[in-house]
Amino acid sequence: MKVELRKARARDVPVLRRLMQLYLYDFAAIDGWTIHDDGLYGDAAIEGYWTDPKRTSFLVYVDGALAGFVLVRDGARFAGEGTREISEFFVLRRHRRQGIGGEVARQVFDMFPGKWELTQITSNVAAQAFWRQIIAAYTGGRYQEQPRPDGEGTMHRFDNGRR
Ligand SMILES: CC(C)(COP(=O)(O)OP(=O)(O)OC[C@H]1O[C@@H](n2cnc3c(N)ncnc32)[C@H](O)[C@@H]1OP(=O)(O)O)[C@@H](O)C(=O)NCCC(=O)NCCS
Predict the structure, then answer these.
(1) d(Cα 26, Cα 56) in Å, to the nearest integer?
(2) Residues whose CB falls within 8 Å of the CB of residue 108, separated by 6 or more in sequence, listed in order
(3) 5, 9, 70, 83: least surrounded by Cβ within 10 Å?
């Protein structure tokens, strides 16, 4: 199984928008969001991901087939400038629990050595289990886990720039 990340370009905007709807649909199931009358789940601010130099977006392919996306930002929500975050991360359901999310995360971390901050909302129990497992293995246990400063979930921090 070949897991590949391709940097998204302007022409990929419609693809990202559609995938984002599936991602928001998943979140709606755990966070009680309601769909709008136009049949869409809000409008996630994704334009900046190919115009803002501090943001990078990737489409995920498994054996050449589209399987998800990852949005990375330099300037994490709580740590700010100089720390990266994975702002959004999504693997299509049919590809889950096969190690693909983990492989994608490792590839992204390897691309950007330095300080990282990952946060998950309390209701996303699966994401908390996923990130805890992946980060613990990736860092060999050298990471911090603490409550999010806003009290709304869990936060992991590590630095892969000193390995
Ligand atoms: C979270 C997500 C990215 C995981 O992707 P994935 O490809 O299924 O992850 P992996 O197969 O690499 O999982 C690695 C490990 O993480 C843990 N894990 C993953 N999904 C889990 C779940 N639903 N429940 C509990 N543990 C889970 C397990 O330890 C798993 O190893 P195992 O399958 O050998 O038990 C995927 O479920 C997803 O896209 N969810 C919806 C969007 C989302 O929540 N994104 C994260 C936002 S913070």
Answers:
(1) 22
(2) 5, 58, 70, 72, 86
(3) 9
Rounded to whole angstroms, the Cα distance separating 105 from 20 reads 18
Note down the domain range covering 111.
3-159
Q: Which helix (DSSP H) or strand (DSSP E) does residue 130 occupy? A: helix 125-139
Tokens of 50: 């190919």
* Ligand 1 atom closest to Cα of residue 92: 39
Number of domains in the chain: 1
Ligand 1 proximity of 109 Cβ (cutoff 6 Å): no
Distance of CA 38 from the midpoint of ligand 1 (Å): 30
CA-atom Rg of the chain in angstroms: 15
pTM, entire model: 0.95
CATH of the domain at 89: 3.40.630.30
Give 31-51 pLDDT, tens digit per residue: 888 899 989 887 666 666 667
